[in-house]
# Entry
Amino acid sequence: QVQLVESGGGLVQPGGSLRLSCAASGSIFSPYNMGWFRQAPGKQRELVATATNAGTTTYADSVKGRFTISRDNAKNTVYLQMNSLKPEDTAVYYCHAEHYLFKDHYWGQGTQVTVSS
# Structure
């Protein structure tokens, strides 16, 4: 069982930056592929970025060049650095973990990001 706790959300002006953190506990962190998803009001949850257990990263086209996902296996934490934020980035951001082999997966409770002037 893996518990995920996100932090770092908040209100930021367009063009600003935020860094989200997701702390994992309850199991060994390194075998898990980690991801950030987001869900805006009235929309489906969408994948934002992933960092596999091997260190490979991928991004949604809408955030490429602006967001950076990273993981620190020693701290059991995955980060999402978000720069040049836009109003359309406003959403609840969720952390997700999936074991690379056994495919058990877990969600965090979400953290609100609001981009507005």
User: Anything to note?
Assistant: The chain has a mean pLDDT of 96. The first strand starts at residue 3 and ends at 7.
